[in-house]
Amino acid sequence: MNTERVVECLAELHTLTKLPRIGWIMAGVPEPESVSDHCFETAIIAYVLAQQLEEPVDIGKVLAMALFHEVGEVRLTDLPRRSSPYVKEFKRAAEEEASRDILHGVAESVLPLLQEMHELKTLEARLVEAAEELQIIAAAMYYAKEGRGDISEYRRDAEKYNPLGVEPAREVADVIKRRLGEYLGGKQYWELGYSRNATLPAE
Fold first, then answer.
1. Interval 45-87: pLDDT, tens
2. What are phi and psi of 191, to 5 degrees?
3. CA distance 182 to 30
4. 31 near 74, Cβ under 8 Å?
5. How far is CA 29 from CA 24, 90, 194, in A?
């Protein structure tokens, strides 16, 4: 074991505890969750959902996917969803390359698990993906309950939530959607930052 390399990797991964989730900042949430918080809660949700399934689940694989699924953000940082039309084409490749460099010589066995998660072909991958998206709308519910920021945008996330065939996730999402709606009331979202190909008014 190269202990120097292990410490370097751990120091980089520690960055995720200080890196805020940018979408929440744009929504005006003061002191929002970190990327590390997001990964931890995703792992907790995935574990809890797995306990509700009758099918056998490789829980070690599930937890590894959940805890490391944002590892590329150590070097790329967290990007808001509105950046997707501009960076989606190369973001996945960049995240994969960054993940390889960050985990090199320390935890490379995680890399094929991250690829498996992106492909969504296994129950474990679908479970983690469903848990990650569930974490987002759950966080929106918490922030809305606390009156932190303008969370109205996330009403749409709750409406279009895809459980990927994981029935317990769908049932939990239904409760979150209802409660989020109650906390938001009739507040509508201002589509600020999402227009594309805008033209200037004629002079």
1. 999 999 999 999 999 999 999 999 999 999 999 999 889 999 9
2. -75, 45
3. 21
4. no
5. 5, 29, 19
